[in-house]
Amino acid sequence: MSGAAAHITVPTWLTNTVTAAHGEEGRRWLASLPDRAAAHLARWDLTLERVLDPGGSLSLISYVHRDDLSPAVLKTGLPTPETAHEHTALSHWAGRGAVLLLDADPAEGVLLLERLHGEIPLRSLAEPKAMLEATSLLHRLWVELPDPSPFPTLAARVEGTAARIAAQRPHPTATAAQPLITEALDTAGSLVASATETVLLHGDFHHGNVLAADRAPWLAIAPRPLAGERAYDLARLALDRADTLIGSPGAPSALRRRLHQLAGALDVDEDRLRGWTLFRAVDLALRALAAGRHEDAELHLELAGHL
User: Fold this and answer.
1) What SS3 state is found at 224?
2) DSSP H/E element including 159
């Protein structure tokens, strides 16, 4: 079957997540998505094997093979400020610790990627082993920035996040958490002002964004790259498997132990990690509210309260 003749069905999960987060703009993008993906199948001489369902929350993920029959992945994503430099980061890493970029149309948000084992995320491992693998991989991803750097700064990312949080603050679920939200925003501002290091960050590093691979045990996918301090990246990993943390006996102590272990493993200041974890927990909670995932929102607000 040729790329141009491929029949592409958008997964319901992708439709729901894009619509919840991006409203009418998202609906217009979804309407154009099958034609957009088909055009790149034809442009890059790819044959569609299947569309992954559910796939990504902001992208259509298609298993394809190239004209030499080598397997690949066509990622057709909704361009956002956070994902705009995904291709740039993947090019800079050049396969070291991350999926290899084979081709890209950045203006359209379309990437051709090395095929990994999508059915085997790092989350499939027991938590202690998964955390060990994750910290090892993060250490490889935190590299010097190119000169000049095209990546947004952590200060800019925090500013954008703060604006999004402000828009969600009136939500009834967030009413009781107003002091916590204020503390998270104030803490982030203080951390930005006192940062002393700047490296390339993945931006959304957690067990679900690390997949098994053939040329390495594990490789990172789906960066939302930026230039900033390592504690910000590590904070997202600290919040992984939030349901397990909350469900464990003595959840506040379990969270503190995790922060202590992660900070020690990567030589990151533990107080800064705690502050960024608070900020990112609140951010994840309000993102979940915007998407209608109230249980996830309450879960992350509870974690934020423990911090």
Assistant:
1) coil
2) helix 154-168
Of 201, 211, 184, the closest CA to residue 236 belongs to: 201
pLDDT digits (tens, 9 = 90+) for 146-204: 999 999 999 999 999 999 888 888 888 888 899 999 999 999 999 999 999 999 999 99
Q: How many CA atoms lie within 13 A of 249 on its CB side?
A: 0
Confirm whether pTM is higher than 0.85.
Answer: yes
Extract the tokens encoding 142: 């935190």
Active-site annotation, residues: 204
Rounded to whole angstroms, how far apart are CA atoms 244 and 257? 14
For residue 284, report the phi and psi dihedrals to the nearest 5 degrees. -60, -40
In what side-by-side order are the strands of the sheet with 117-121?
A: 117-121, 210-212, 218-220
Domains and CATH numbers, the chain: 3-115 (3.30.200.20), 122-306 (3.90.1200.10)
